[in-house]
Amino acid sequence: MARSHNFSAGPSALPTEVLQEARDEFFDFSGSGMSVMEISHRSELFMALAYQAEQDLRAILDVPKHYKVLFLHGGASMQFSQVPMNLLRGKGTADYLHTGLWSGKAVEAARRYCDVRVVGSGEPWGFDRIPGAAEWHLNPDAAYLHYTENETVHGVQFAAAPTPEVPLVCDACSSLLSKPINVARHGLIYAAAQKNIGAAGVTVVIVDEALLGGALPMTPDILNYARLARAESMLNTPATFSWYLTGLMLRWILRQGGIRPVHQANLAKARLLYGAIDGSGGFYVNKVQPAFRSINNVPFTMACPVLEKSFLRLADLSGFKGLKGHAAVGGIRASIYNAVTLASVEALVAFMQDFQSRHG
Ligand SMILES: *Cc1c(COP(=O)(O)O)cnc(C)c1O
């Protein structure tokens, strides 16, 4: 069975091992004679799976007891609205850091619910860096500070989490479970599964229970964290198959030795790829300042669009998939999430060098 080198930004590569496990029990989950997709979310079998996934996530990220772990619908984009609906708690303003395309979307969504203050922005620099904390204008009366840990499109990542006085909210959609994160320093962290965690359909939310209970009155129950937490994310039918796959992915991370070895492996892949780009004498260019380069998404450009087009065409024919840059920025982007192997990155680097020797 030939597997492609998959550099897609999301939905993205899953470990072959995880796919094999899912295949092996596809028709018969845990000896039940039914697929995991065919059983009730309220059945003992599914409840056990859900419980185990939560315990594994708590163990991997060292989640303190007073945090709720939710498995929700709607993707990270739903959180752009669900966060202000639930966390304004009677306040009229929230602070946002604008560091690329995704945080820009979070800002736009939140404007419906409150006075959004963009307290720091990378826009003047074309999002090639995270503006320094000394330049932020934080408001002590803000309900929370929102930041996007890793900007999936622009390829910029925070070197360290902000440390505001107010609760800290993190869009970790493309980086959760790819590196350690200090949960206790955050009020809320969210991530859709389809980048580092599993398959599309489920979104992980980790929230300090002290922040719950003050949702806007118009908030539907189905978007109310407090009610969802009380119902263990089962106010309605959850995305059972995606939840199950996330469980398999969490087990896979544990088998790697946990978050630290996974992070080390991700660092090694990033070092190799950035090294190849920087060592190409300008044939390939990543313009992000080195301190803020993403270990998850590596965008790069070439001298002209025609060259990029032939690179992408030849890459595709050679088994390298998902390398086209996001439409908003163009160019090329290699997403090197948890499931992308070092061997795949080595093969990509060899392909890039070969391409350069023919066209450089
Ligand atoms: C992919 C992504 C989103 C959007 O996720 P959806 O599940 O498609 O809504 C939001 N933020 C970041 C940082 C992302 O990478």
Main attributes of the structure:
single chain; 360 residues; alpha/beta; seven-stranded mixed beta sheet; 9 helices; 34% helix; 15% strand; binds pyridoxal-5'-phosphate
Task: Describe the model.
34% of the residues lie in helices and 15% in strands. The protein has helices at residues 16-24, 44-61, 75-87, 101-110, 225-230, 240-255, 259-278, 305-317, 342-359, and strands at 5-6, 67-72, 93-98, 115-121, 145-148, 150-151, 156-157, 168-171, 188-192, 203-208, 297-300, 320-321, 332-335. It has a seven-stranded mixed beta sheet, sandwiched between helices. A two-stranded parallel ribbon has the order 1-12. Helix 4 links the parallel strand 3 (93-98) and strand 4. Helix 1 (16-24) crosses helix 6 (240-255). The radius of gyration is 21 Å and the shape is globular. Residues 10, 75-77, 102, 148, 152, 171, 173-174, 192 line the site of pyridoxal-5'-phosphate.
Quick one: overall form?
A: globular
Helix content: 25-40%
DSSP summary: helix tally: 9
How many beta strands in the DSSP annotation? 13
Q: What oligomeric state best describes the polypeptide chains here?
A: single chain
Query: What is the succession of H and E elements?
Result: EHHEHEHEEEEEEEHHHEHEEH
Briefly note the structural class of the backbone.
alpha/beta
Note poorly predicted spans.
Answer: none
Numbering strands along the chain, what is their spatial order in the largest sheet?
2-10-9-8-5-3-4
